Please model this.
Amino acid sequence: MKTAANTSTHVELVSAARDQEAIVANLLQLYAHDFSEFHWVDLAGDGRFVYAELPLYWSEPDRHPFLINVEGKLAGFVLVKRASDLSGNKKV
Model:
């Protein structure tokens, strides 16, 4: 438990390795379940939420998967996708 004198928390963002895809997929299921209250998310025949693009985060250069650790314990994930430049300029 944190006290008023010790309020700092160690948060770490680490790139998710290919062999951690299942961890990200499991966390994504929890996120999709929570999000489904506000937006329809398709279910596969096995009852899991569908996010077919997840494997692309380990194969496409503009996609990056991360895991979040808080105090050394797994706490979440982030999926980053570089968007196209809306100004019409080409990506450098």
